[in-house]
Amino acid sequence: MMNRNIINEIEKLSKRPKLFEKGTGNIWTEPYISTQMLKAHLDYKSDRASRNIEKVKKTVTFLKETTNKGEGILDLGCGPGLYAEEFCRNGYKVTGIDFSSNSINYAKESANKQGLNIEYRCEDMFNINYNEKYDTVIQVFGEVNTFSDENRNKLFDKVKNALKPGGLFIFDVSTPVHRRKNGLNKNWYVSDCGFWRGEAHIVFEEGFEYSDNIWLDQFIVIDNEEIKVYRNWFHEYTLNTIKEIVLENGFSKVNVLNGLYSKEVEEDSEWLTVIAAK
Ligand SMILES: C[S@@+](CC[C@H](N)C(=O)[O-])C[C@H]1O[C@@H](n2cnc3c(N)ncnc32)[C@H](O)[C@@H]1O
């Protein structure tokens, strides 16, 4: 039977949290969930945790032709190394950083098996301290959307330090058009084994909208042992907002494209690629 404490806890957690308030769980670093995420990354046909493998290849070819920069690339939030491997095959010298040990262990093994010389580090990207080492820094699949303004600006500073003069920071962000397509969910279910837990659990899912194009997808997960809340924050950007923010953060030039391998930004673009020069 559920006792009063559990009900109070669920009630407390289901209230609309403060902007960018952290949850108590982490989908990228918890052993069980990060194994599920790794499976999603490696589902080469889907666009869930990573884009599908054809898009990965097209992106790397496009970035190679567009940027025409030197060979040193830093991939922040590299996951299992799909882009890192493709850049390496195209002659780049790649460093991949991710704080998911599951993904980094997989990436190291995969590179070894294929004889690809990639440096992988299991590290929080907010702790990196490189000084003018890289020609290009990339961050793929909307990670910038998930940061508070303060953390985003902190990361931009780290990236600027890591870039050589004139080096490029290339990242993609989703737009409010993308978010509106997905909408806000309010749902609950019971499962014996699923994405959140390998044992019986209940999930309460709820979406919240905030001002300034910020959204939260919140999941309260209850199992035999504990109640945890997972919060996925998304700050969606438009062409104008992201340009302004990049320039305010001290990059000298910025070009914004539609998606990761085409050119014109349209009114209904769901993804923007930002190419910012130091
Ligand atoms: C949406 S996935 C994209 C992975 C990869 N870029 C791709 O497209 O295949 C985001 C990745 O960023 C990593 N990540 C998130 N926050 C991080 C942090 N603070 N430091 C290092 N890695 C982080 C996650 O572990 C995850 O692998």
UniProtKB/TrEMBL annotation:
<feature type="domain" description="Methyltransferase">
    <location>
        <begin position="73"/>
        <end position="167"/>
    </location>
</feature>
<dbReference type="GO" id="GO:0008168">
    <property type="term" value="F:methyltransferase activity"/>
</dbReference>
<dbReference type="GO" id="GO:0032259">
    <property type="term" value="P:methylation"/>
</dbReference>
<protein>
    <submittedName>
        <fullName>Class I SAM-dependent methyltransferase</fullName>
    </submittedName>
</protein>
<dbReference type="Pfam" id="PF13649">
    <property type="entry name" value="Methyltransf_25"/>
</dbReference>
<dbReference type="InterPro" id="IPR041698">
    <property type="entry name" value="Methyltransf_25"/>
</dbReference>
<keyword id="KW-0808">Transferase</keyword>
<keyword id="KW-0489">Methyltransferase</keyword>
<dbReference type="InterPro" id="IPR029063">
    <property type="entry name" value="SAM-dependent_MTases_sf"/>
</dbReference>
